[in-house]
Design brief:
Elements (H helix, E strand, L loop, with lengths): L1 H16 L14 H6 L2 H20 L6 H13 L5 H14 L8 H15 L3
């Protein structure tokens, strides 16, 4: 329970600092490298937390950048029928193919990878 609470706290803190790429040392609390080293349960918890947090801040209007809000909306539309296991497979495969992103904050990579996927796919 404490571990999940700590992970959620880090996700929320990183979310509010991770608004641009590349990541700075300050925002890189949980990197792609950390994600790839995590267990399956930790990966699923991380993705669920990131997705739900982005969805909430988007819905209540906390996203000031129209471009970022549009990217999030594309992601929500594209992933509406996906479950967390499918999202985990997609994000893990993207990270495997983009090892140069492993030192970037995972919350930033999440948006970039899913927006890239959703922009390129016919969802």
């Amino acid at each position: 329970m404490r571990r999940a609470s700590l992970l959620l706290s880090l996700v929320l803190l990183t979310l509010f600092t991770a608004t641009s790429r590349p990541a700075t040392a300050y925002e890189a609390f949980f990197t792609g490298n950390d994600y790839m080293a995590a267990s399956s349960k930790e990966r699923l918890a991380f993705l669920g937390g990131v997705y739900d947090t982005y969805k909430t801040v988007h819905e209540v209007g906390f996203i000031s950048s129209e471009e970022f809000a549009n990217a999030l909306q594309r992601i929500f539309d594209c992933t509406a029928e996906m479950n967390l296991v499918e999202m985990e497979a997609l994000f893990s495969a993207w990270l495997e193919a983009h090892r140069e992103e492993w030192d970037v904050a995972a919350v930033s990579s999440f948006v970039f990878s899913f927006d890239t996927h959703c922009t390129q796919s016919q969802y």
